[in-house]
Amino acid sequence: MNKEREFQEVSSNIAGIRVFAPKPKQEEERKAQSYTCPQCGGQLAYDLVLSGLACSHCGHQVAIRTRKIGPTAKKQEFTVDTMKIADRGWGKLRTMIHCQQCGAELSYAEGAVATSCPYCASNSVNVSQSEHTLFQPQALVPFKVKPDNLRLYTDQWIKDGWMHPAELKNSARVDRFVPFYIPFWAFSAKIAFDWEAEVAHTVTEQYYDASSKSWQTRTRIEWRWENGNVQKTYTNYLVSGVDEKRLNPLILGGLTPFDMDALVSFEPDYLVGINANAYDVDLNTAWATAKTNLRDEAMQLAIEDASNSQVRNLSIDMSYDNERWSYLFLPVYIAVYLFEGKSFQVMVNGQTGKVFGQKPIAWLKVWLAILGALLPGILLTIIGMTGMAMTAGCIGMIFLILGGTFAFITFKKARSLEELL
Amino acid sequence: MSKQETPPIEFQQESSWDHGELLEACSACQCVFLVSPEHSKQICPICSQADLVPEPDKEARWAPELVLPIQIDQQTFKNYMERFLDEVPYKTNDLTVDNLVERVRVVWWPQWLVDADLEGEWEATVGYNYQVKTARERYGNDGWKSQNVLRTEIRYEPRMGTMNRHHDNVIIPALHTNEERIRQLGEYDRKQVVKFKDGILDRASIQLPTIEPGELREVAEDKFRLIAEKEILEATGAQHRQEINYRGVFKNMNWSKFLLPIFSSYYVDDHQQCHPVVMNAQSGKLYGRRMASLKKARKKTLGLAALLMLVFLVLILASLLSPSGGIVCIVGAALLLGTLALIPLIRASVWNRRQEKTVSQFR
Fold first, then answer.
1. E strand or H helix at B318, and its extent?
2. Of the candidates A410, A174, A369, the residue with the CA atom closest to the CA atom of residue A418
3. Average pLDDT over residues A81-103
4. Which of A120, A354, B182, B248 lies 20 to 30 A from A22 at CA?
5. Domain boundary pick from B291, B310, B342
6. Which residues of B touch A12 (CB under 8 A)?
7. Which domain holds residue B192?
8. Rounded Cα distance, B255 and B60, in Å
9. Do B137 and A17 make contact, defined as CB atoms within 8 angstroms?
10. Would you place residue B3 in the very low, low, confident or very high pLDDT band (cuts 50, 70, 90)?
11. Do the Cβ atoms of B139 and A3 come within 8 Å?
């Protein structure tokens, strides 16, 4: 009998046969909510220490009812209908809510999903900005790192590394961490591809050297065609939903990985008093980004599959299967610190405590290190070339190669850190 | 929607039908026929192995509801028979088109037609096609090229409902040999079916069912269940089925007969054994063993052997006249000619063995 309540009659193609289908799940419209303390009427907010809602006035605590879903979080398919909705974008934006505490009409900043009433300070959450429930967050990873520990992590991070100005350790202080839920698109897919390429094989052969009138050995590269088939399954491949103009994607990328086992079903309560923005990179754009990355990975996998990493004329024929997506919120603390009058952005993974961000580069230190690495090799090689000591020359060459490698790596790392700025 | 008790099947017989036909049975194949008096005690038109003998009468005289008319005329029958016998080597004297035409009889064989009301509930898990957007990507000298592809997937969903349908003339086998006969004679085109009228059977022999409706209740229910499942799938608009469970009843079952025509003839082989030749009187498909005459083949072999002996003697004489002629050549020629003489007998034996294993079908 319960079943009958869950089913509704639908059209039938044959007279005399009645057909009942499950009632479509009422997409629960998440109305904008205001949060006030049921005990004193004070302001309720998510307490990062208690991992629940707490009243800032009387300390009353409200537990959040949610369930852990882990990596099995429901994922959507790229159906033709879904993609049409995604193409249309947000639809009609719902940016106004009525404050249940004082009756004020509140306007949300574009993209923001949580705000505080400027008149009564009560917190509100409005995740239903999109008219399509499909594009409302389906899961999130709650904050695990307590705010008290953040200074510890960032102070250590400031001290790490030698490429930065010495004064940074003493004068830079990172504080005023803002907890933020960052929107992410998580993709799952299986890629399968056939590859074909010419692969380099080193062949050693003997030849007769007429000038020395003796047989010599030489090596040459022989290109041989190889092919193969590779399959790989990706789960929760993350692409940021925030426009790179707003948050540096390189810094965001440096915060990964997140432990997806900790995913919980989305509840607006988690966002009370915490900054959260809805995505501004749409599904199609994010999927295109993911696919670009997957292509690069496919090329890398093809090269790994070949018998030698030196390949040319590579061709790949790739297909996707079982593609799925989900829209998640992941926890991040964002902070800014000042150094020599300039501001630098730093972020902390709200789940693992991993710190990543901008740090000024002391290029003088870098160049001196590069010079110091190359100098012994250069000097010894010069000595060897002048004929003073052949052994020194040989050792110099080895030092030069080692120094050059160190210099290259150091320079690359410095450049990559500077790119964050 | 509660489950109902299955009511007993009701057998509603058509009006009684009696034009003085006699009830006779074959002692070899046990087939029972209604035959007109002029065909009484003749050879069994189905197996041709024994004459029909009178059978104690039983309640078998129901008029059929539907009949499939004969489509093959006498000339067409003759043409088909000619082609059927065309390739038989060393035909027995009795295996001629004229004999087959002369002995031909029309026999109507039965199937049951069942009507029923299907009432009840059903539950199903059925699959609907939907499309997902995917891509095919190729990398080559000119970089990556992406092509959008639509892939069809299946989404299975539960459905339930009720059924209140009436079905007419569902065919149920009336003979134990129904399947074999369809295999031998091919399917009939039932679109050409007509209502039974007096005189339509033209005093032909009518084979009676070997299975009575009482024994066929479960078979009929299974058939209706299959129909119900097919209709449920159609009603839901789904393209795939995972499970369909019809839990209703089959009410007001009404049984009647449906008659299909065959032409039956026979011929006698060397050992005076009769072989039936049967034709689907609608499509013309033929069935029967076409035995070669070993007697004729043996005669031909002996004739050839005598001829070859003569040739052999001539060769010996020739070799005596010219001593340089090799005796070896003569022995070789003798062996070769001896082998040739055996060909008719071997051919007829091989043909008959093949006929015994697989009966010839034509058209």
1. helix B294-321
2. A410
3. 62
4. B248
5. B291
6. 161, 235-236
7. 22-124+161-291
8. 13
9. no
10. very low
11. no
> Based on the domain organization, do B213 and B250 belong to the same domain?
yes
A318–chain B nearest CA distance, Å = 5
Tell me the mean pLDDT in the region B309-327: 72
User: What is the least distance, in Å, from the CA of B215 to any CA of chain A?
Assistant: 29
CA dihedral B22, B215, B116, B230 (to 10 degrees): -120
Q: Residue A227's pLDDT is what?
A: 96
Contact partners, residue A204, CB within 8 Å, separation at least 6: A217, A218, A219
A237 neighbors A189 (Cβ within 8 angstroms): yes
- Examine the fold and report which residue of B291, B326, B345 is the final residue of a domain before the chain moves on: B291
Residues B213 and B282 in one domain: yes
Q: Do B139 and A299 touch (CB under 8 A)?
A: yes
Sequence-distant (6+) residues with CB within 8 A of A217 are A204, A205, A206, A207
Give CA–CA dist B114/B301, Å, rounded.
59
Give B117 to chain A, closest Cα distance, Å.
11
In A, minimum Cα distance to B166 occurs at A16
Per-residue pLDDT tens digits for B233-244 = 999 999 999 999
Q: Is B286 found in the same domain as B217?
A: yes
Instruction: Name the percent of chain B lying above pLDDT 90.
Output: 48
Residue A234: pLDDT band with limits 50, 70, 90 = very high
Check whether A1 has a pLDDT greater than 50: no
Indicate if B120 and B26 belong to the same structural domain: yes
Among A110-114, A205-209, B292-296, name the one with the lowest average pLDDT: A110-114
Residue type for A383, please?
Answer: I
* Interface residues on A facing B, Cβ-Cβ cutoff 8 A: 3-4, 7, 11-14, 16-22, 77-80, 83, 291, 295, 298-299, 313-321, 323
Reported as a single tens digit per residue, the pLDDT across A180-218 is 888 899 999 999 999 999 999 999 988 888 888 889 888
Q: How many domains does chain B have?
A: 2
Contact yes or no for B132 and A18 at CB 8 A: no
The mean predicted confidence, pLDDT, of chain B is: 86
Q: Is the dihedral of CA B94, B100, B106, B107 positive or negative?
A: positive
Distances (CA, A) of A188 to A252, A264, A324, A379: 20, 18, 5, 54
Query: A138, exposed or middle or buried, with CB in 10 Å at 0-12, 13-18, 19+?
Result: buried
Q: Is A77 close to B132, i.e. CB distance below 8 A?
A: yes
Interface probe, candidates A17, A82, A319, chain B, greatest B C-beta count within 10 A: A17
Q: Element (H or E) spanning A186, and its range?
A: strand A175-209
First to last CA, chain A: 64
Same-domain status, B43 and B109 = yes
Per-residue pLDDT band at A125 (split at 50, 70, 90) = low
Rounded to two decimals, the ipTM of the complex is 0.74
**CA distances to A141, B156, B224, B238 from B230, in Å:** 48, 17, 10, 11
